[in-house]
Fold these 2 entries.
Entry 1:
Amino acid sequence: MRFYFFIIFRRCVFINKELQVNEEIRDKEVRLIDQDGKQIGIMSAKEAYKIAQERHLDLVKIAPQANPPVCKLMDFGKYRYELSKREKEAKKKQKVINVKEIRMSPTIEDHDFGVKLKSAIKFLKEGNKVKVTIRFRGREAAHTSLAEDLLKRFANELSEYGVIEKAPNMEGRNLMMVLTPKN
């Protein structure tokens, strides 16, 4: 006498951000809502899918956590199109702020300082943040107070265009400060 063991694997349904549509809905009972927002009632998923086919619409599960899950009759293609349109509109209104970096040395000359200042003003007027970095080479690192005075002077020159977000601080062999544009 032989015994055969059959192992039945069930397909795992992952919880994802996508909505379940039409045949993907495998619940026994669902609460059905019309495309106008009126409640039709609680029925089996097969009956709800038949109603959706009769009306030439899609059955979409909108609240899977509810008991029983809530499904709505809608044109799913139109719904996805409107959703993507809203996302694009939100993306247009979103403002991206970039961080522009200006590098100097503690022994910078006045003309070079003025050039760096003009570029920082331009960046702040565009609405970008400005990261001012002073690099120390060799024995320059012993005179950090000179570099701090230079950064304070730089911030004072830019006071009508921006404000200090992050005060000057040492990171390795660099002294850094971050400025943001004024509103």
Entry 2:
Amino acid sequence: MTPFRKILIANRGEIAVRVMRTLDALGIASVAVYHQVERRAKHVRMAGEAIELKGASPVAAHLDGAQIVAAALACGADAIHPGYGFLSENAAFAKAIADAGITFIGPDAETISLMGDKISARNFAEAHGVPVAPSVMPTEDLDAFASAAEKIGFPLLIKAAAGGGGKGMSIVRAASELKEAARIASSEAQRYFNDGRVYAEVYVEKPRHIEVQVLGDGQGNAIHLLERECSVQRRFQKIIEEAPAANLPEPLRSEILNSAVRLAEAAKYKNAGTVEYILGADGRFFFLEMNTRLQVEHPVTEMITGLDLVKAQIEIAADLGLPLKQQEVEARGHSIECRICAENPDGNFMPETGAIDYLDVPEGEHIRFENALDPGQKVTTDFDPMIAKLVVHGSDRLEAIENTIDALTDLDILGVKTNVDYLIRVVGHEAFVEGNLHTGFIPQYAEDLATPELTEKGRDLALIAAALGFREFRDLAFGMPEPHASIGHWRN
């Protein structure tokens, strides 16, 4: 049993609901925070307590670390769980929590600073024998930067030193493009992260994105919980993740897993973290970054290991040590996670808005639908377009794919356009089934994945099916009016 009596969740939506589920199971009181526009949200209703955050916008409120720490002190919370996004990798926030005498459920501020800056993280990884891609460090002298970049060859990937999520990132294939690409990337990085530093590294064509879930106790002991495949992305952002990775030779898998543990041990990492790699077709892999928080895709690891990662986070934060030994970690079957987003895949994945008019969720022991949705709930541009996650398990990868397609087919969300049908086409694509994955998968198969044109008959059937999904329509169309309903079955 942990010493925590009450934990404030510095987040919202489905991850706040996810954390509360574990807190309830552990008998720990939960505290939600919210902006006034989400005062009736599911995570607010589920929490034992809820505290309103003031802010000009919902995002501004959730990024106000001082206000969140003050809320935790006011309600007597012993610890703060940051979820992911918002302040989860903010070193100043972690330090402010520690200075207030509250436990931060994550690594300390120094580790977040070390790994949060891509350049310092890269240097640290290289110093401890973790492979890194040939690169050029940032300088204010753009001419010198361009000259050094040309020496390592093209194509190159320009990246923001303090960034993530594809912001401040671009591919450069010729020297003539380099200076302008660096200038644009620097401007975007300054806008999003208040840090305009960019660097360049060798761009691996058609790479796979492999990441390793690690747990560390802060004393130099660390374990891995196997790897995840996160190669299916649009605009540098993941939409499908799975565990374990497909078609990964065992010696290579072991090498990647061991390098992640080596990095976590060297950093004396404490809590849950993820070491991310780029894997080339030639078998070479390079350190990409380390995320010092729980990942969006953590449920696929939970599905194959049987562990509750939030529980493990809480126990490690309470200095109760790691939940198991490395030799006890094993994969049981295969798991796939699909990010359900309010977006238009045929319109360059632009976010969509609307209201959840109807929600019908598939159920089964092999299915988790992580969400915080309510019928009638408005989907706005205030937050990320991801509105839920469908996580499915199978005895092997092929069964997991079949179960995922079935679950996506049975998932109905009406009122706002989503990527559900698109995900069905991705998971069912021959190349996906065969495990031929890389980060350019979506652009390569864009034509195959586009929404097929609807015939007149198909449109009529879709409208009929949608109408029959509404109880009000069924009652109106097929209900028996009075007084005939009271008479029962009768015949002329």
